[in-house]
Amino acid sequence: MIRPSFLQAGDRVGVVAMASKVSYPSLEEGLRILREDWELEVVEGHTLYSHYNQFAGTDEERRQDLQHMLDDPSVRAIFSARGGYGSSKIIDTLRFQKFKKSPKWLVGFSDITAVHCHLHRLGFESLHATMPKLFGQEGAENALESLRKALWGEQLAYDVPAHPYNRNGKAAATVVGGNLCLLAHLLGSRSEIDTRGKILFIEDVEEYYYNLDRMMVQLKRARKLDQLAGIVVGQFTDLKDNESASFGKNHFEIISDYVQEFDYPVAFDFPVGHVADNRAMVVGRHALLEVTSENTRLCFDS
């Protein structure tokens, strides 16, 4: 995998809204951190100020804004201001010829999973991590520091407590993944992720339990689960049950059901997803996953 150059103070970075519209005042603390704390030169995209229905501009406006950042060799990283919905609507119309000559970090999560998967197919590392709209939220200190470490090329290693649904084991492989809904949504597209021999991480928010089950069925039928090196289950927040007959299982039980026949390590309750402590995950980088009765450790290669 091709790794973009790490950042240093004074570097130029872009911030755009690739998907849903964003309130500019909600970005002020994130932009301040980038400029003052991290000492970066920030280029603000037009989509931070525009909107079209629920989106941060029309598909073409959002495509042009992101394309400009991809093409500009002076921009060393691109931050998605927020997620929402819409990045997959523009991914097939983006051009990556200039990006390939001058690779840069792409940072975001949730809906931005579509872009991460596409970049992985092109052979580039990217950063599934917190976004400027969320930089200042309470409890985000570890998430923000993990993103800074990833961008500055410092060691990334996470230790989290053991979970009752874990399956012990060790795996050394490339890390891929992101939002479960997007991973299922991308199946059959040019951005579909290849999970064979890899460590897959998943997370999601505000889904019904039955739909979570359906997405796991989809991944299993598409053979995205049977040849993994390991799986890291992040945070599944604000999940909903049916108003009438309960689905009858929580997300730990649902996911466990679909991986129980395999023998790779399984780590639950990892700090990645729609939570304040959303640790940076380098999509496309080799890492060591160790799941024991004491804890889970994920250590990315330098």
TrEMBL record:
Q: What is this protein called?
A: Muramoyltetrapeptide carboxypeptidase
Record-annotated LD-carboxypeptidase C-terminal domain positions: 174-287
Residues annotated as domain LD-carboxypeptidase N-terminal: 13-129
What family does this belong to?
Belongs to the peptidase S66 family.
Q: Which PANTHER family match?
A: MURAMOYLTETRAPEPTIDE CARBOXYPEPTIDASE (PTHR30237), MUREIN TETRAPEPTIDE CARBOXYPEPTIDASE (PTHR30237:SF2)
Report keywords, A-Z.
Carboxypeptidase, Hydrolase, Protease, Serine protease
What EC number(s) does the entry state? 3.4.17.13
User: What are the recorded GO MF terms, alphabetically?
Assistant: muramoyltetrapeptide carboxypeptidase activity; serine-type peptidase activity
The superkingdom of the source organism is Bacteria
Q: Which residues of this protein are catalytic?
A: 110, 203, 274
Organism, as annotated: Runella defluvii
One short Pfam name that applies is: Peptidase_S66
Q: Which GO terms describe its biological process?
A: proteolysis
Among CDD domains, the record links this protein to: Peptidase_S66
